[in-house]
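Check this.
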Amino acid sequence: MLGYMTLGASDFERAKTFYRAVLAPLGAKPAMSGDRMELYSNGTGAMLGVCIPYDKGAATPGNGVMPAISASSREVVDQVHAAALANGATCEGPPGERMPTFYGAYFRDPDGNKICVYKMG
């Protein structure tokens, strides 16, 4: 299964500040940090990281790439989405029920990466 996923960042310091704030409602904090990468974990499941691309090329969002982050409740989905927008994200779909067992919200981080936060059940 997935161990971690990284997203490229054009401004590494801005990305770290953004993800520290946005992932806090999920109980996530930096688990590993270095000169070009920082990975976040809440102690369960896969980690999410931001990095300066290894080839030092432009950080661009992948077409169709979208990490989906599991939340413990619908309220946490709402909190993460609100934190993202308050820290410079753009809304790609407000929190809401997408199907009977899926409550999700979507946003793009300051580098344009599309993220979903959701609660199943």
